[in-house]
């Protein structure tokens, strides 16, 4: 088999081991134009394997992975393959794949420069209202707004429990997983190494991804994060600090260097709204309530340990430390104080005293 031009196997109940096997076979069909696997079950394992195959195919015009549960990590891998190749792509269908807004943005960005593109379908995923708007904005910015399909069936942002269920499903069947790993190892040496990508880390933070950004990671984050926006700066702070590990010197240094670069740049900007940055942090940590519907992050020790470090730096305004005194209110510390008492105690020592905090749009 090496002369296939079209593959149509929709609704065949193919799971990720079968998808991975197909992906390996597809690499040997350079004239492949249409790849339709609609309504099979990729999961991220199958989607990543298929993305590797796409890197070897330059004639593909139609990709239909709708209803395939490619999930966010799979969508990111596919976006990478599209960015690096597929110059004559016409249609891309990743609908109903349990893809989040951040991953969908990367997919939208990946079609930049694809002059032959006729349709991008991301309907029925988990973008949420803001995610849908962001995808539309990206496509409009590429002058491709009319090529984006309807997003009317979007499922909204996923709950944390949904994410955990997906992870559990991915971990089932260890024997099959080992087989998949062996297949992927055969194809991986042929793949093009992915360049450092700060946006990929911010979508799915991990210590390994942070270290792979290399010595220029601080500069990459400076370029990626819009420090003029206090809310986005706070969000980036929490994502980077979430991988902080006191026991791993390399990761710890990488986190603190990256945070230093972002916040030093932010606070050096006269127009940066530092108080909004602090209030956004407290809202995202679940310590303050906001009139806007903001879903708190899962608090981890790294958030507080990094914050403890930050307030000691010369770029951090001393008057902002007073805001952190609100942590001494028992109503705020109750749900995390029992979990991270040492971190809270350190923060209280830094804040020095209790202050009354009044924030626009927020209430204790």
From TrEMBL:
<keyword id="KW-0343">GTPase activation</keyword>
<dbReference type="GO" id="GO:0007165">
    <property type="term" value="P:signal transduction"/>
</dbReference>
<feature type="compositionally biased region" description="Acidic residues">
    <location>
        <begin position="152"/>
        <end position="181"/>
    </location>
</feature>
<dbReference type="GO" id="GO:0005634">
    <property type="term" value="C:nucleus"/>
</dbReference>
<dbReference type="Pfam" id="PF07834">
    <property type="entry name" value="RanGAP1_C"/>
</dbReference>
<dbReference type="GO" id="GO:0005829">
    <property type="term" value="C:cytosol"/>
</dbReference>
<dbReference type="InterPro" id="IPR032675">
    <property type="entry name" value="LRR_dom_sf"/>
</dbReference>
<feature type="region of interest" description="Disordered">
    <location>
        <begin position="146"/>
        <end position="196"/>
    </location>
</feature>
<protein>
    <submittedName>
        <fullName>RAN GTPase activating protein 1a</fullName>
    </submittedName>
</protein>
<dbReference type="GO" id="GO:0048471">
    <property type="term" value="C:perinuclear region of cytoplasm"/>
</dbReference>
<keyword id="KW-0677">Repeat</keyword>
<dbReference type="InterPro" id="IPR027038">
    <property type="entry name" value="RanGap"/>
</dbReference>
<dbReference type="Pfam" id="PF13516">
    <property type="entry name" value="LRR_6"/>
</dbReference>
<keyword id="KW-0433">Leucine-rich repeat</keyword>
<dbReference type="GO" id="GO:0031267">
    <property type="term" value="F:small GTPase binding"/>
</dbReference>
<dbReference type="InterPro" id="IPR001611">
    <property type="entry name" value="Leu-rich_rpt"/>
</dbReference>
<dbReference type="InterPro" id="IPR009109">
    <property type="entry name" value="Ran_GTPase_activating_1_C"/>
</dbReference>
<dbReference type="GO" id="GO:0005096">
    <property type="term" value="F:GTPase activator activity"/>
</dbReference>
<feature type="domain" description="Ran-GTPase activating protein 1 C-terminal">
    <location>
        <begin position="173"/>
        <end position="325"/>
    </location>
</feature>
<dbReference type="InterPro" id="IPR036720">
    <property type="entry name" value="RanGAP1_C_sf"/>
</dbReference>
<dbReference type="GO" id="GO:0006913">
    <property type="term" value="P:nucleocytoplasmic transport"/>
</dbReference>
């Amino acid at each position: 088999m090496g002369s296939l031009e079209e593959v149509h196997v929709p609704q065949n109940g193919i799971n990720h081991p079968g998808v991975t096997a197909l992906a390996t076979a597809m690499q040997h069909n350079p004239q492949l134009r249409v790849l339709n696997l609609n309504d099979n079950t990729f999961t991220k394992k199958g989607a990543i394997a298929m993305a590797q195959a796409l890197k070897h195919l330059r004639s593909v015009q139609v990709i239909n992975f709708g209803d395939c549960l490619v999930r966010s990590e799979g969508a990111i891998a596919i976006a990478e393959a599209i960015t690096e190749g597929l110059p004559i792509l016409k249609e891309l269908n990743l609908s109903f794949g349990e893809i989040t807004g951040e991953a969908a943005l990367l997919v939208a960005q990946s079609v930049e420069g694809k002059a032959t593109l006729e349709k991008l379908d991301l309907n029925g995923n988990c973008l949420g209202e803001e995610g849908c708007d962001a995808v539309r904005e990206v496509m409009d910015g590429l002058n491709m707004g009319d090529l984006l399909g309807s997003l009317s069936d979007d499922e909204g942002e996923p709950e944390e429990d949904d994410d955990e269920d997906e992870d559990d499903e991915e971990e089932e069947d260890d024997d099959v997983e080992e087989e998949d790993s062996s297949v992927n190892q055969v194809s991986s040496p042929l793949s093009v190494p992915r360049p450092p990508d700060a946006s990929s880390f911010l979508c799915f933070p991990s210590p390994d991804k942070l270290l792979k950004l290399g010595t220029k990671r601080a500069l990459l984050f400076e370029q990626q994060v819009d420090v003029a926006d206090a809310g986005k700066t706070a969000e980036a702070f929490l994502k980077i600090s979430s991988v902080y590990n006191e026991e791993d010197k390399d990761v710890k240094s990488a986190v603190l260097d990256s945070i230093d670069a972002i916040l030093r740049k932010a606070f050096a900007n006269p127009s940066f709204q530092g108080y909004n940055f602090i209030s956004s942090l407290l809202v995202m940590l679940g310590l303050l309530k906001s009139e806007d519907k903001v879903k708190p992050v899962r608090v981890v020790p790294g958030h507080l340990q990094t914050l403890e470090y930050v307030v000691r730096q010369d770029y951090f305004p001393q008057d902002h430390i007073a805001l952190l005194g609100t942590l001494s209110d028992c109503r705020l510390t109750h749900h995390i104080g029992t979990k991270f008492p040492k971190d809270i105690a350190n923060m209280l020592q830094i804040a020095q005293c209790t202050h009354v905090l009044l924030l626009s749009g927020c209430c204790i």
